[in-house]
């Protein structure tokens, strides 16, 4: 019998700074909240927004380490992975469900900017690094965005809604 998984691809902006969880000192996993807001042009050519969907994204092993280093609150990203739910009952007996993507890949959405990939050698693991702010680089004229202006949900406009604490996820500081 084949196991079926709902593999999806979603774009959006990182709503919370990625947070490591687990007992492994090399960051066995990390998670962040992703805000995805569909936009479209109406009949008059005006941009319209639908309500924002918030999804928890979890990454594990090397992907988690790379996300912790390269992804920051407000970044436009593309995430692909297995869609699922996490369910638990809180201390008052209230049942909770949250939608989660177990990420297979996470990358910056190049519709909104450019990025540089730094590869790691296979034999050696990267040393845990603290994210450093990137210095803006001039964008070559060939890369200037010819697309029409779209509403920008920058980091200052994103506020991730609070999630209730999951008692079955004790090593997870984001609850």
From TrEMBL:
<dbReference type="InterPro" id="IPR011344">
    <property type="entry name" value="ssDNA-bd"/>
</dbReference>
<feature type="region of interest" description="Disordered">
    <location>
        <begin position="121"/>
        <end position="175"/>
    </location>
</feature>
<dbReference type="GO" id="GO:0009295">
    <property type="term" value="C:nucleoid"/>
</dbReference>
<feature type="compositionally biased region" description="Acidic residues">
    <location>
        <begin position="159"/>
        <end position="169"/>
    </location>
</feature>
<dbReference type="GO" id="GO:0003697">
    <property type="term" value="F:single-stranded DNA binding"/>
</dbReference>
<dbReference type="InterPro" id="IPR012340">
    <property type="entry name" value="NA-bd_OB-fold"/>
</dbReference>
<protein>
    <recommendedName>
        <fullName>Single-stranded DNA-binding protein</fullName>
    </recommendedName>
</protein>
<keyword id="KW-0238">DNA-binding</keyword>
<dbReference type="InterPro" id="IPR000424">
    <property type="entry name" value="Primosome_PriB/ssb"/>
</dbReference>
<dbReference type="Pfam" id="PF00436">
    <property type="entry name" value="SSB"/>
</dbReference>
<feature type="compositionally biased region" description="Pro residues">
    <location>
        <begin position="128"/>
        <end position="139"/>
    </location>
</feature>
<dbReference type="GO" id="GO:0006260">
    <property type="term" value="P:DNA replication"/>
</dbReference>
């Amino acid at each position: 019998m084949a196991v079926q998984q709902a593999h999806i691809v979603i774009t959006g902006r990182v709503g919370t700074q990625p947070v490591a969880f687990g007992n492994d000192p090399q960051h066995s996993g990390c998670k962040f909240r992703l805000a995805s807001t569909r936009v479209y042009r109406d009949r008059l050519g005006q941009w319209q927004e639908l309500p924002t969907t918030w999804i928890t994204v979890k990454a594990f092993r090397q992907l988690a380490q790379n996300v912790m280093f390269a992804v920051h609150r407000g970044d436009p990203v593309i995430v692909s992975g297995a869609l699922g739910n996490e369910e638990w009952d809180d201390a008052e007996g209230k049942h909770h469900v949250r939608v989660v993507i177990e990420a297979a890949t996470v990358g910056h959405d190049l519709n909104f900017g450019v990025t540089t990939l730094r590869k790691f050698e296979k034999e050696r693991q990267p040393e845990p690094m603290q994210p450093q702010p990137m210095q803006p680089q001039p964008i070559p004229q060939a890369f200037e965005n010819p697309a029409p202006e779209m509403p920008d949900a920058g980091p200052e406009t994103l506020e991730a809604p609070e999630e209730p604490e999951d008692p079955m996820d004790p090593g997870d500081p984001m609850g």
